[in-house]
């Protein structure tokens, strides 16, 4: 039995998980786990070290030896800051390709659970509520229409100085949703006890308030 509370926020790409998770964590003074960043770091490392995306054994070995650190919102691979590099769409697509392997997922479990520390953790990804933290006190599944998500990702990529094209983004998003949802290992799906939140027409602040309110309600009802 684990006392340290976890808020699990899962959902498809560009549904707002990362943004909402970071703001909820800041409001509650909780730690933050961006699990997608771990898959992106593994993806980047596989390119660097020339490991093929279908070689599940070599990928798992690579992940076990991965030398990564997170501090103040930065992600380092082998001591080099790669925070912006891992945000490229190619890295996200490769992350999705290597994330289908159960060997790769298993190699990342302990690293993810190690983020659970007092006073609490907000974790975002695809399987936070279903696999990594099944005892999370609150599980939220964020959704938004594919058009809203493509438009958000487009704006975000341009702001970060990447080039982006709406048609390519829509195609890639659909492809990634399809692969993430239909894989055998930890597919993207809401936990049975997850609260669904469609953010298509919500501002970031509205989404954050809803999650914080659900959390407070849950804590109150657990006390009774
Ligand atoms: O930001 P975005 O939602 O596009 O992706 P991300 O959360 O950074 O994750 C990149 C890819 O890693 C996803 O498309 C998933 O295939 C994989 N992933 C996963 O399988 N499980 C997680 N908990 C997090 C990410
Ligand atoms: O982590 P994930 O891929 O799910 O998405 P994100 O990177 O947090 O959000 C994608 C973009 O959508 C960001 O630029 C957010 O600022 C934006 N966003 C929004 O416009 N409205 C929301 N309700 C949530 C996110």
From TrEMBL:
Record's GO cellular component terms: cytosol
Predominant localisation class: cytoplasm
Source organism: Trinickia dinghuensis
PANTHER family in the cross-refs: CYTIDYLATE KINASE (PTHR21299:SF2), CYTIDYLATE KINASE/PANTOATE-BETA-ALANINE LIGASE (PTHR21299)
Positions annotated to bind ATP: 11-19
GO molecular function: ATP binding; CMP kinase activity; dCMP kinase activity
Family according to the record: Belongs to the cytidylate kinase family. Type 1 subfamily.
Designated name of the protein: Cytidylate kinase
Stretches that traverse the bilayer: none
Domain Cytidylate kinase: residue ranges: 7-215
InterPro entries: Cytidylate_kin, Cytidylate_kinase_dom, P-loop_NTPase
NCBIfam families: cmk
Keyword line: ATP-binding, Cytoplasm, Kinase, Nucleotide-binding, Transferase
């Amino acid at each position: 039995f684990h006392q340290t509370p976890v808020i699990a926020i899962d959902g498809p790409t560009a549904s707002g998980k990362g943004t909402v998770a970071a703001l909820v964590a800041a409001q509650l003074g909780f730690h933050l786990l961006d699990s997608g960043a771990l898959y992106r770091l593994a993806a980047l490392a596989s390119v660097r070290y020339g490991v093929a995306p279908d070689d599940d054994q070599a990928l798992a070995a690579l992940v076990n030896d991965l030398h990564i650190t997170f501090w103040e919102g930065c992600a380092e691979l082998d001591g080099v800051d790669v925070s912006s590099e891992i945000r490229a769409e190619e890295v996200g697509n490769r992350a999705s390709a290597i994330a289908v392997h159960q060997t790769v997922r298993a190699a990342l479990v302990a690293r993810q659970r190690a983020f659970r520390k007092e006073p609490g953790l907000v974790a975002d990804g695809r399987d936070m509520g279903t696999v990594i933290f099944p005892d999370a006190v609150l599980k939220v599944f964020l959704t938004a229409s594919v058009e809203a998500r493509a438009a958000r990702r487009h704006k975000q990529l341009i702001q970060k100085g990447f080039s982006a094209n709406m048609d390519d983004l829509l195609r890639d998003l659909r492809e990634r949703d399809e692969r993430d949802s239909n894989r055998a290992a930890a597919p993207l799906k809401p936990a049975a006890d997850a609260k669904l939140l469609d953010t298509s027409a919500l501002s970031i602040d509205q989404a954050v308030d809803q999650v914080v309110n659900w959390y407070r309600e849950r804590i109150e009802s657990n006390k009774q």
